[in-house]
Amino acid sequence: MTDAHHESQSVIRTPKQLIAAVLAGFLVPIITIVLLVQYVGNTTRVGAGSESQSDEAIAERIKPVSDIGFTFRDANAPKQLQAGADVYKGVCAACHASGAAGAPKVGDAAAWSARIGQGYDTLVSHAVNGIRAMPAKGGNPDLDDVEVARAMVYMANQSGAKFKEPEVKANSSAAASKNEAMAAPAATPQNAAPASAAAPTPAAPAPAPTSTSATAADAGQKLYASACVACHGAGVAGAPKFGDKTAWADRLKQGKDVLYEHAIKGFQGKNGIMPAKGGSSASDEEVKAAVDYIAAAAK
């Protein structure tokens, strides 16, 4: 009984022990919290009280958004020519990645071997000027000849060729014009032409005006024969064939304005791709005339 009685007694036997236990119950949690706060406070802070709001820090954070290389570009600076791989991805891959319209796929050495055998100059000429279903400059008339040549070299070298990267030639015509302007003598009383020689001659009678519609139709037919026939003549790459009323029925229902926009700006359809202006450098009015000519044959 005596042992059991002692075991059941509390650990706290005196008032001092009770006070110490109460103080420990309060102080231990408080000290723990203080230590945790100090530990967290010693880490790097990104809010108030740090340098994260300084002008330098803010400028560094927003730099990728506010300055991506276009802000200070000089519009009058020479054009930056694209690399062959970039031109291929943006233009040529539409056909040469999948083999559409009979285009040789990049990396297919068998399909490229005969073409590579024609030589560098021939391939560049075909790429720049177009051949059969291949539109001039891949359908992007804004490309420089050097960019087109680089794309051709990139594709050919990926398919077994060993062509060298084309060199950028200086604009000799601009230099020649500048030299001519510098060499031309200024007009003086001694070398000025006599008044009688400078007098304008009577203008020749103006030719009789021709019909505007007839001129537009002729321009449309010429553009079709030089550019559009490459695809619309045989229905290449999903292009509706010339004169096929069934293939053109739904397209004509869209209206002339839609057809004009697709022909001028280019269009990616379900069955194929229409390059801008058929890959030609024709004016918008000439393209519209060609659309009218093709549409008239499908009605």
UniProtKB/TrEMBL annotation:
Keyword Metal-binding: yes
Keyword Transferase: no
Pfam families on file: Cytochrome_CBB3 (PF13442)
Keywords: Electron transport, Heme, Iron, Membrane, Metal-binding, Transmembrane, Transmembrane helix, Transport
Ranges for domain Cytochrome c: 79-159, 215-298
Recorded superkingdom: Bacteria
Transmembrane segments: 18-40
Protein name: Cytochrome c5 family protein
